[in-house]
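Quarterly update from the structural biology core.
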Amino acid sequence: MQRRALLALPALALPAAAQGFPTRPMRVVVPFAAGGAADSAARTIFPRMAERLGQPIVVENRTGAGGSIGGAEVARAPADGHTLLFDASSHLVNPHLMRGLPFDYATAFAPISQVVTFPQVLAVKVDLPVNTLAEFVALARTRVMSIGTQGNATAGHLGLATFLRTAGINATHVPYRGGADAARDLAAGTLDGVFITMLSARPIVESGRARFLAVASAQRTTLRPLVPTFGEQGVVGVEISEWASLFAPAGTPPAIQLAIFGALREALSLAEVRERLAGLGAEPVGSTPEEFARFVEQGRAQAGVTVRDANIRLE
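Predicted structure, tokenized:
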């Protein structure tokens, strides 16, 4: 839907109610560390958006508590479109894991667009005697595999839990503080596999120290078109990618939301932006606010099922 829809959408005129927007510099809160995939994508996209909106856009990192500190910052901001949230899949998971938050993820934000996805992959160490997902599942029925992810309750963890449940196998989950750390241990042979972003796994695969088995998306990724999906290999329903998306505070006027989306879509259509995103292992999406609202609602419900069934808890 989303990648093809990005180029198919008609040109958007700035709504009359948003002709004066923005009236001052904007800020985008990234609730994760500087230099990470989401932060790098933000710093690629938002300068181009700023050119189209006619005001600077400052990217501000507000880290901590699984992204909820940055979320709280935007939830209490004025609903005028000048403060936005660039959040990740934890936006859907946090409500099922955290208690006592000062805001409600379901009601505090207006979804603007799913901006980019970072495909999740299952990769295995080079000397594991499997070449296909079916062979991996068969081997996992004879021994307990160790599989690393980029952290507890991350998209990789949820993807791994979904895969294990769907395939009817068990494995030892080994959470790390990021995908790069998991990839390093896979390359060293201390893990059997990893369920992390393609960006994190790509260097060790390209160096010959690991190999891809499957990508957790509905369709093959353009970043690695020869890697089959889980569904193609008979394990249906493992479609969990990390992503970065844009939200405004709830109550932001629809005309301003549309103006922000229009500038975003124009930025994502630029060849230089798409090339830089590809270098980050990211695929542009640019879904409409309506499409993204449905995605968030469905994704939050599915995350709740996975968290409950896999008994996922915060560390």
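The chain is about 40% helix and 20% strand.
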